[in-house]
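FAQ: What does the model actually see?

It sees only this:
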Amino acid sequence: MKNSTKIFCMLAFFVSVQLGAQTVLTKKEALKIALENNYGIKIAYNNVKVAKNNSSIYNTRHLPTISASTGTNYSNNNQNITAQNGNVTTVNGAITKSYNASVNLNYTLFDGLGRKYNYKQLKETYNLSQLQAKETIENTYLQLFTVYFEIARLSENTQNLQDALAISKQRLQRAEYQYQYGQTTKVALLNAQVDVNNDSITLMNSRQQYLNSKRSLNIILGVTQEPNFDVETTINFTKLLTLPKLLEQAKLNNTLLQQNKKNIAISEFNLKINKASFLPTVSLTSSYGWNKSQNPATSFLAQSQSTGLNAGLNLSWNIFDGGSTKTRVANSKIAIENQKIAMQQQQETVENNLRNTWGSYQNSLFVLKAQEQNILTSQNNFDRTEEKYKLGQVSSIEFRQAQINLLNAKTALSNAKFDAKLIELQLLQISGQLINSEI
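And it is asked to produce this:
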């Protein structure tokens, strides 16, 4: 039912796109589509399936092997037989036929516990593949919203540029009227025309970047439809824990640290598997067979047939293999030590990245508040300057500067808002809470 709902949502979205409706692709919808269609995530899920198949009991030598065989032989020979008394018997076309069939069973009763540890190692490898898939999902999550928020930023900037162009056109129209009635110079009119042209070019470039970013988002979503959609521009920030709590969560839930733990466990099982070669192997063999032969006249028996059960118990012990097992055991211990060193290094790296990201996040929130205040100041300054410009108390240059200041403040606020949200997502990823967090 859940998959059906997802498919229905995707179809509804794409149908609306194909019909030309400018729909709003929400953050949650984008995430659902990416989880279903992203190529990297599909490959990661397939790798998990392979690891699951490998960890099955069918791949661990715990079960016996059963085989069946059958065959027939035919021979036609000319035979010369000399008896002890010197009599010679010659038979031309001496035909011999034989038939056989059997069912064979082989089972290893004991192999030094190698099968047991191999099975556990494969289970840990499967768990590792799940963590690797989780890492792929987290990276795709960040990649998705990096592009998504870039589209949102360009959407806001494009709207701001449209507003700026509308103001510039009003200014140009005013300058044309003033020039016609001799209230301003030709230079002022030309300056207004240049500003309209520049604003038009900037708006056109922004629209092209906006479209390019939406196409980039389609690649991450794994779809090929023309990107005829808008995105959400509202941002909700998560109420995060304190830095000590985030550090504690990172030690428990960080995906890279969890992978390091699994690699250590896999290496430890590999050591036990190699040590198993020091112990003997006990195996059971059994077969049930049927044999029949038809012999020529020269044979003592004209025909024979046998059926029966055969079983055997075998023990083998590689007492000395030239030191290869000893070498593998020694190298396995070194591999475990290397994994532990890598674990310690990764822990320090994660803690350092978390502290740096936390500092960047706090700074970005401060910048966001400052830019919100700048918007108020710039808007107030523009409104006052516009009023004075209409009264002829300020020049067009001063008015243009106030307009640019307001546009820059709006752009800075948009950048600060989306930058802060992306840093927050990075912080959640490092602490291992990204996938389960609210967008």
